[in-house]
């Protein structure tokens, strides 16, 4: 693995894990969030019954899955028409910053609706994680795609292992300090955006969709190193582009075709 590819992989694996943390805030901070929701509902709408509170709380919890569904249905279009990097880095990280800020300022403003918006956006960010993995796989040489994909997954797991103990009541998991976790997520998302925005786009997307061979070659050299055989890579991209022009590809064709795999 080239030094540049290793740096890119670590950046996406560590800083890019902000989305997994944001998606887990509701479960990790359930107790202090119930206190906050109760205070916010009482301040704005007066006393609410236990049944009404449970309904509000459950509705907000489900917004994450609504965001995931919307993200899943839109990411394919965004990947193809604005690109892997703009979707996985610029759009995803920007949404991550906004999501964390909404959750953070919800408490001082005593507005559970803002937290709900942040939780919804966290679902979209969570879905776009798949785009980040695809982007990283397309930037990696064939023999390293498995390694970079595992590194991306390991980064998310490691982030959750580190964050979970911080959610204990004696640390951040209390009514006063729970907002520190979404603040951390916003900082991670901002750092990820600030660093990863300088990485080249996916060479495959540049070649197949943008028909930009010079920039695709530059991207290959950046990620694969000077030993990269661009002629062989170009031939592989040409085969894939030819297959894509035939329309929809079945799962059986993907499994049986080495280029698509």
From TrEMBL:
Organism, as annotated: Parascaris univalens (Nematode worm)
GO cellular component labels: membrane
Molecular-function GO terms, alphabetical: hexose transmembrane transporter activity
Membrane topology type: Multi-pass membrane protein
UniProt-annotated location(s): Membrane
Name the UniProt record assigns to this protein: Major facilitator superfamily (MFS) profile domain-containing protein
Entry's transmembrane regions: 55-78, 90-110, 116-137, 149-171, 177-199
Keywords: Membrane, Transmembrane, Transmembrane helix
InterPro entries named in the record: GLUT, MFS_dom, MFS_sugar_transport-like, MFS_trans_sf
Record-linked Gene3D superfamilies: MFS general substrate transporter like domains (1.20.1250.20)
Domain of life: Eukaryota
Domain (Major facilitator superfamily (MFS) profile) ranges: 8-261
SUPFAM superfamilies registered for this protein in UniProt: MFS general substrate transporter
